[in-house]
Please model this.
Amino acid sequence: MERKGFLTDYKRIQVISGLAALSGAIMTLIILFFLPINYIDKRNIIIIVVSVIIFVAIFYTIPALYLNKKLSMVSDLFYILAITLVMKNIGDYGYIYFTFYMILAAVDAFIFPAYQYAILISAMCVGILVANISPDFIIQNQIIYQIYGVLTLSIILRLIARDALLIKERKEVLETDITELENDKREIRILLGSLAEGMFIVDEKNKITFFNKSALEILNVIAPEDKIISRDINDILKTVGPNGPESVTKDPFGKLEPSRRNDFRIIFPDRVVKLHTNVSPVIGERGEVSGAIIFFRDITKEKNLEEQRAEFNAIASHELRSPLSVIEGYLFFLLDPASKAKYDNVTRGYIEKAHDASRELIQLITDVLTVVKAENNELELNISDVDVKKIIEKSKKEYEKQAEIKKIKLELVLAVKNIPIIKSDDIKIKEIANNLIGNALKFTEKGSVTIEIGMLENEIIISVTDTGPGISKEDQALVFKKFFRSEDWKTRKTGGTGLGLYIVKTLTERLGGRAGLQSVVDKGSKFYFTLPLELNNKEKK
Amino acid sequence: MKPTILVVDDDTNLTGLYEAALSARGYRVVVCNNGETALDLAEKENPDLILLDIMMPAIHGLHVLDILKATPQTEDSKVIMLTALGDEATKEKALATGAIDYIVKSDSSMADILNRIQKALD
Model:
């Protein structure tokens, strides 16, 4: 792998190894100079030194400094070629050296350094063989052999120096890599440790291979790292589900689910911690599941708040509704002929007003609770076989008296003869119908309110048409929004919370239907909602 | 003979109301304000109908219902749950235990409640 800055490093190595070759040559000469060997003509030493310096300078150091890697390799070839040309003077055997050195040069330039030594040693052996074959020749050509020997040694020294440097360089690079990797690993640990979420990674046998600091903090585990690693996750994370202990990683390895979220409890002697867990399979390069990664966080506080809120809702509904229903009941009883109470018309009117107001207040509380439930996704459905026609008839009946007082014609029209029985929630349908009929009567001063039940392709459609003031185009887009009340409506001093149509829409959608309207100002409005003949899975819940 | 209705609710205002409204309509009304007395009265008076609240101190209404349905003398008496609890789970539980109707006080007007009581006794 070519590393950045390698050329620069290579040059440095060439120069240093060149110097090594030079000093090696000089040392060899010094040894030769001081050895009491007769056949070395000490006068030749100067010539040898100068030739080595020239060789090294021309073929190593200068090319290494000024040429790139490939060219300096070529110069190596020339160096060896030059030696060989000198050798050629030895006689016919010189060609053998030429061949060996050419191979050496090729290996030196392109193949593994280890082979260089083998070939070099072979070359020297051949040299010695040559020497043995004709000792006279050696004596006659002393100086050439001396130059050859010194140069050969210098090449060996150079190669050794170069390779030692390369090895050292590589080791440093590797060490840097390892340090970087370790730093990265430490950094990842620190990052994961800083997560508020606890984290475990387990292998396919549920043994822990990694965890973070938060994991131990949340679980209140005090143990050194090696006491956690390779333990079974279920010994550390003792999750308890609704039906007793339950493994957090329960079979994550069979199926390739993207992730699985769950709420669990951890039971300590003095307290209970609630956890939200998210388990994802760890998927290897070949798509195999090699373990699981588990994130979890302490949701005790949130859960407790949620429970408190639910409790408050229950209390609010109970404590507010109970006295109100008593008020409504007594007021009703005062007006009930059975009570035999007698009033003049004015008093009766007052009581009637109080009774109406109490019913409105009850409706308001019911509406608010419905909205709260809807927004917390707590609207439960009670699905059964439902006769829509019957429900609408019942709802209509409740408003007949009000229509009579206002002198508005309230009628029910069946667009088709048979309305099928569907699976739905009767109470919710009645709430929707009541809201629409109640609204229509409230805003209509004269004329009629017509309820119609019809069929569409896959739906039952229930519409309520009035001859009221109608709704402007701008307002039509807003009527189903929470707390919406038009300016017109306010000036007309009609009561209401602005929740009715929002509830209509929310409940209809919960039942898998649609709610909408058509309206022309001063002509009237037609509100409708639909109920699907078949419930989707989403609604069945 | 006048049908007897036992009204059980810890809210005395409410029991007072039902006593007045139901008596005026010609029923014999017995009221009490806790589950324990309710169980005694249910055995003693043998009422035709019991209006039973759920959220009561001491004995929970659903528990009262359980005992009523498990006791031979009272197992046949009709019970209508009359409560402020509107959740489906409680309703289902009550109906499964043997209540014939489940009325959420505030979801129904007094007129509606009286109709349903009458219907249960017909």
User: Anything to note?
Assistant: Residues 335 and 352 of chain A are 8 Å apart (CA to CA). The interface with chain B takes residues 314, 317-318, 321-326, 328-330, 332-333, 336, 338-340, 359, 362, 365-366, 369, 380-382, 427 of chain A (CB under 8 Å). Chain A has a mean pLDDT of 76.
